[in-house]
């Protein structure tokens, strides 16, 4: 991927990357709306939602959210980010950190009913961090695609 640079890509590739990132952003926004409807972004309601779930229900949620976050929301943008002109340190950060936060997000969901309802705050913070990371990825990619000098 070292020879592939989005800032030097053809217009069709830049439009494809932009379209993909916009669709991923809209997908994430629909998830955020769904979470808001369920919890109003309040850790107390998060604890209430997950606090009484049985192991099988938590596994169903993990089965749904894990590929949703890891594959669709982050694997595609991170793969696109690897083709930007940013430093290797920044690329290494985004290659690992979002997926660690996804694991923390899923793990905290399991820990709420079985260990401590305070993990609802961890779940809330992890979700907030994921949204922030996706926004930062979006901005960095769009800057590299459209504004960076080739």
What does this structure look like?
There is one protein chain. The protein has helices at residues 11-39, 43-51, 55-81, 88-114, 119-147. It contains five helices and no strands. With 150 residues, it is an all-alpha fold. The chain has one domain (6-147). 81% of the residues lie in helices and 0% in strands. The radius of gyration is 17 Å and the shape is elongated.
Compact summary:
Helix content is 81%, strand content 0%. The mean pLDDT is 93.
User: How big a fraction of the residues is strand?
Assistant: under 5%
Which regions have little confidence, pLDDT < 50, spanning 5+ residues? Answer: none
End-to-end separation: 16 Å
Query: Which bin fits the share of residues in helices?
Result: over 70%
Descriptive labels:
150 residues, mainly alpha, 81% helix, elongated
Tell me the layout of helices and strands:
Blueprint (H helix, E strand, L loop, with lengths): L10 H29 L3 H9 L3 H27 L6 H27 L4 H29 L3
Helix pairs in contact: 1-3, 1-5, 2-5, 3-4, 3-5, 4-5
